[in-house]
Amino acid sequence: MKIRFLLSSLTSIACVVGLGASASAAPVAPRVIIVAGWENGADTGDAPGEYQDWVEREHLTRQIPVRGVKEPILRANESGVYGLVLRSGPAELMALALDPAFDLKKTYWIFTGISGVNPNVASVGSVAWARWVVDGDALRELDDRSIPKDWPYGLYAIGADRPNTLPNDPNHYGSVTDVAQLTKAYPLNQGLARWAFGLSRNVTLADDPEIARRRAAWPASLPASKPPMILMGETLGALRYWHGEARNNWAQDWVRLWTKGQGVFVMTNEESQTNQKAMRLLAKWGYIDPDRVMVLRSGSNPSMPPPGVSLTQSMGDEGPGQNLAFDNNERAGAPVVAELVRHWDHYRDHVPSAP
Prior knowledge:
With 355 residues, this protein is α/β, with parallel strands linked by helices.
């Protein structure tokens, strides 16, 4: 009798467990995920960071839990648009991708945020769609005060003999047999980037009286003297917060070197390279589609000072440029989000592209 009762109980439990498994919800498949790097205070209603304008303007009212993450990082609206703020960095990208509650294989990604902007190419408040994200971290460095006389600076590729040259021997890492594996330029889907730029290029950007006043310090021949613009150009990520004309020259050269002369340095920040490393790994593992990743950065401050302003005075002086960059980032990206959602039946299986 006890054995019969035990078998009956186990059968009942198995039925309940089976019912729970079959009735469990299918994984959620976001249409677009907007990724921001940080936020000031609350996500809404106070001074904005990189996340708030997106949360408020896209009506991301629902908070969504992510397995293993203790703080709120994910929001959504009813149209399948999600916002992800990386409060602790790219580990949260991994947590989201590895959470079985989500299916990200058809998701489009827009990595957003503010940056230092190259004044030789664009002005504060400008927004750029990237074709490459270039890693500025792993390199060799000599003190610029002790470099050979014919060197422009003491930064150069690991395995190379001097600045602005690629490594001759890829095996200096011990396990690499192809120089291409050493690349510091992470390619994005350029057709998708051109398509996104085409949708946003005529958006009206905001301006700011104080930023306009500061632009007057730049020579009229430089783009830094012009109102905010939308353009295509590369993002350089480096954990070092560098500043100044000498390092700006290095950044221009570094982007040109690793993109084989095709890329143009426009934006610099401290996290794009680590985010894209994580995304490349998730793509390798099959969790995301790398052809659906976009990077949209906006300039909050110039990457070098205007004439007559000292380096120490200019370094980190983002001032009103931050709010302008937050604002224009969302303005430029909004038409792309709207188009993907509006015609999701097509874009779900067909990644858009422009020549």
